[in-house]
Amino acid sequence: EPEVTQTPSHQVTQMGQEVILRCVPISNHLYFYWYRQILGQKVEFLVSFYNNEISEKSEIFDDQFSVERPDGSNFTLKIRSTKLEDSAMYFCASSPWTTLGNEQFFGPGTRLTVL
Amino acid sequence: DAKTTQPPSMDCAEGRAANLPCNHSTISGNEYVYWYRQIHSQGPQYIIHGLKNNETNEMASLIITEDRKSSTLILPHATLRDTAVYYCIVRVDFGNEKLTFGTGTRLTIIP
């Protein structure tokens, strides 16, 4: 069964450093998303992406964040200058175009630790 | 903010049916009820969704009241692997509409 994959599974970085989180969505999906979950808190929407542009972004997704689909398979989230409060699990998700429903399929997540 | 209300926690004996309730009294006519679950710190997993009719798939059944203000997710024969946080989410079923997660129900299956 196809699945969303994410790399790395765990990233440790120093405050102020740039990080790139990588995702490979399911191959025939058209919509892509990033969510994050701070330890013990809710899963929060960050951004959605369709047709090579951002469709919607949350208040969390400020100028420090960017997303890119550099080729036909990868979908990346970049944090330019990490802060301590960026420590969280980051989940990538993708969904197909279908009239039967738009369920989102989530990857296993990347645990980002900012020191 | 999430537009659903769920009990924070529930227990269910292994092998029994787990019935998870959700209130969504402000649901709009074009909004669907979606259920996801999150096992430990893994990525959320889609379970089932519906508009107004009851739905069943290989994982669960979804019962939506006639006025659509509440629903119940039923796991017919709960196993230990069903221990997870279950999220009830209402959203329009269009394009790339985001999911807005609440705090969900922490379901613990008791051996």
Q: How does this structure look, described?
A:
The complex is a heterodimer of chains A (115) and B (111). Chain A is built from no helices and eleven strands. The model of chain A has no long low-confidence stretch (mean pLDDT 93). In chain A, the strands form two sheets. In chain A, strands 2, 4, 5, 6, 9, 10 and 11 form a seven-stranded mixed beta sheet that branches. Chain A is 0% helix and 50% strand. The radius of gyration of chain A is 14 Å and the shape is globular. Chain A has 115 residues and is mainly beta. In chain A, a hairpin with a 6-residue loop joins strand 7 (65-68) and strand 8. Chain A has strands at 5-7, 10-13, 19-24, 31-37, 43-50, 53-57, 65-68, 75-79, 88-95, 105-106, 110-114. Chain B is mostly beta strands and 111 residues long. Chain B is built from no helices and nine strands. In chain B, the strands form two sheets. In chain B, strands 1-9-8-3-4 form a five-stranded mixed beta sheet, with no helix packed on it. A four-stranded antiparallel beta sheet of chain B has the order 2-7-6-5, with no helix packed on it. In chain B, a hairpin with a 4-residue loop joins strand 5 (55-56) and strand 6 (61-64). The relative contact order of chain B is 0.35. Classes of the chains: A mainly beta (115), B mainly beta (111). The interface between A and B is medium-sized, with 30 and 22 residues.
